[in-house]
Amino acid sequence: MDIDLLSNIFYAMVRCGTPLLLVALGELVCEKSGVLNLGQEGMMLFGAVIGFIVAFNSGHLWLGVLLAMTAGMLLSALFALVALVFNANQVATGLALTIFGVGLSSFVGAAWVGKPLAGFEPLAIPYLSDIPLIGRMLFAQDLLVYLSFALFALVAWVIVKSRVGLIIQAVGENPDAASAMGLPVLRVRTLAVLFGGAMAGLAGAYLSLAYTPMWAENMSAGRGWIALALVVFASWRVWRLLLGAYLFGLASILHLVAQGLGLAIPSSLLAMLPYAATIVVLVLLSRDAVRTRLYAPVSLGQPWQAGH
Amino acid sequence: MSNPDSIARLQLRKISKRYPGCLANDAIDLSIQPGEIHALLGENGAGKSTLMKIIYGVTAADSGEVIWQGQRINLRNPAQARSLGIGMVFQHFSLFETLTVAQNIALAMGATAGTPAQLEPRIREVSRRYGMALEPQRLVHSLSIGERQRVEIIRCLMQDIRLLILDEPTSVLTPAEAEELFVTLRRLASEGCSILFISHKLGEVRGLCHSATVLRGGRVSGHCTPAHCSDRELAQLMVGEAAGLITDYPKVSADNAFLQINQLSWHNPDPFGCSLRDIELEVCSGEIVGIAGVAGNGQDEWLALLSGETQLPRQQGETIRFDGQPVAHLRPDARRRLGLAFVPAERLGHGAVPQLSLADNALLSAFQQGLVSHGLIRRRKVEQLAEAIIRRFGVKTPDSKTSARSLSGGNLQKFILGREILQQPKLLVAAHPTWGVDVGAATTIHRALIALRDAGAAILVVSEDLDELFQISDRLGALCGGRLSALRPTVETRLSDVGAWMAGQFDAPQSPAPAPV
Predict the structure, then answer these.
(1) pLDDT of B375 higher than 90
(2) B257-346+426-502: same fold as B10-239?
């Protein structure tokens, strides 16, 4: 395998991994605070369609990105209202949100299916992008990928180093104790959910404005679900999340690689790989109760009300 | 303290709080001076928890005044209470297990915590000054219960503390650990901090506290100086009746082993749990064996192995035997058929299904008592059984159709114990049989256990209440770190022996050596 091919694979791996990374970062923060939001897929699609429509009509890509994030946040606000304020079951609410988001995005975007758009272009950084192997992967991407690097650094810093991260973790582990300490449990959880919504919306915008600049129904193709699995795969640790996102990115471009190498494996089989890998990883990891006990937010998915 | 001119640190006037269906606090007056260790005594359900939640700002009183150092205040939340200098150590710790000691403390301190580099020396300083060894870098889940309590206390001491509230702090400690805690508390009080010490253990209240307020049924039943009162007088204030408080049951010895445990070891896959090592035990028909131990030393794991919730592989079936028959590999229902009855520690969700009626809960474990025929439930019989339990054990409930969760803890405990006892088991394994139960009900339960013993059943009681164990057990032992001490007849055992066992000192014989068995 020559260096150019490898360099291309790495480049595509990061591109493919970026939407997963963005959604998973949002969900990680959300789950750290104790909230399981299964609505990622729906929020992502809604963000994708709104981002596309806005960018298409206004001609401003960044306005599209901004409104895509707002759209994701709006849906997550709905989730927060139902699951946190009214204390409905988080799993059911999240599932409903996904179903709702998928339908809503198809409905809203019907008139824009297949319309062409000039999306975000790669922006190579001089010299740095010429580094062999990793130059293109890290320094010849589009602006949204660079943004994902920055957001990763931000989330990693917040969770590992900052007091805010400590508070999020405390709320997710023992909301009763956190509340007894005077921490605003519901406010922390709501903000975490909103952050997750914005990230899902951003991931959607990346799909419809950069990755494949167009709108098609269901274009996220289950990435929201893979991102949810990623958070478990990473056992709620942020560095593993980065690794996992790119590994899954790699898995989802393997059929292209195989074609490039002229391997006689049916590409539909390889295209299945990320989904199959998700199942295998989840099964393997959930067997290990020790890891789950040590790292999983203890109160994940449990409704909480003040004064109980 | 006796100076009438000094301003009280905290004064409560006519505090009342009503919950649906009960008046939890009824016009309660209380006053604590600076540097005073004040006991708040009372049975479970007397209103202690409610009162302390009001002082700490968790709940608001319906009426009455809270006066803090001469100023009337209106507490809205715990954060406000903490900013005034009120700290609280909860009975069920409010710590975050996956965080370090320092992180836990930083969370409570808010912005004043500073950076970890600044905080850690301060934690070390405070822990040294009050004689509570603690390593700031350790993760809380790796700490013992006693160490966790230190984290809670140090967390309070890091701030400018004026009033420290401790909710039944010794219930999780060995007697020696409790003594260490008292040293710290006396030191703190000598520096002018007021301490509100909530307890129902009369002995330690008399040894530690300057004054006491006793609650009964939501009201103040008396103020007193504990050092000048006898246990009986204090108990009378708490319970309202003098008779039948402390009963001595005749001790027996038996030699026909029903439950035999041989070399029972079990590795716990849970990293926060306790593994069991080489447990050896025999319980004979017609005796009560009591096992002491601080929670978290393997009780839950051991009980699950005994009840059948955890099963061992078939090859290890011989490690537990009922009447000679290997059972360690059998499921709970198979063990029940061999004569086992089981009262778990956790009442709701383990001993009873919260949503089901009492009658249905009776059916759950007593299904072998002719309540089912040809796969159909005989409703009438189930209800008769439930009503019999309610009657015989004085369960306070409207009827047998009431859901289990609407009963108070003590009432439900009576029901669950009654359900198991009425099945006339050959072996009863009971965890914390009177935990959270008032004195009257505890006596009922103890009498029932003794009667069951005298009818020839083997009984194993696991409890944290040493008074109870000494009262009803014929032989005693203790669990520590997943190991079981040797058993000794209760009459030859002193409290300090059990204390040593609970701390893991199994081999230090302090009493005359027991007769060889």
Answers:
(1) no
(2) yes
* CB contact (8 A) between residue B98 and residue A307: no
- Rounded CA-CA distance A54/A49 in Å is 9
Q: Touching check for B269 and chain A: CB below 8 Å?
A: yes
* B5 pLDDT above the threshold of 80: no
Share of chain A above pLDDT 70, in %: 97
Distance, in Å, from the CA atom of B517 to the CA atom of B514, rounded to the nearest integer, reads 8
Secondary structure (H, E, C), B283-321? EECCCEEEEECCCCCCHHHHHHHHHCCCCCCHHHHHHEE
Q: What is the pLDDT of residue B461?
A: 95
pLDDT-based confidence at residue B246 (cuts at 50, 70, 90): low
Compute φ and ψ for B321, nearest 5 degrees: -130, 140
**Chain B closest-CA separation from residue A26 CA (Å):** 21
Least confident interval from A34-48, A181-195, A288-302: A288-302
User: Can you point out the beta strands (E) in chain A?
Assistant: none
pLDDT at B27 over 70: yes
A-chain residues near B270 (CB < 8 A): 289-290, 293
Q: Would the CB atoms of A166 and B90 count as touching at under 8 Å?
A: no
End-to-end CA, chain B? 56
Chain B, 14 to 73: residues with Cβ < 8 Å from chain A are: 58-59
Q: Domains of chain A (ranges plus CATH)? A: 3-295 (1.10.3470)
Q: Which residues of B touch A307 (CB under 8 A)?
A: 58-59
Domain B257-346+426-502 has CATH 3.30.460.80: no
Of A174, A293, A307, the CB nearest to B96: A174
Count chain A–chain B contacts defined by CB atoms under 8 A: 57
CATH number of B10-239: 3.40.50.300
CA distance to partner chain B, nearest, from residue A305 (Å): 13
Do the Cβ atoms of A176 and B94 come within 8 Å?
yes
The confidence band for B177, taking pLDDT boundaries of 50, 70 and 90, is: confident
Determine the pLDDT at residue B516: 43
Q: Delimit the domains of chain B by residue range.
A: 10-239, 257-346+426-502
Segment holding A285, helix H or strand E: helix A273-287
ipTM surpasses 0.90: no
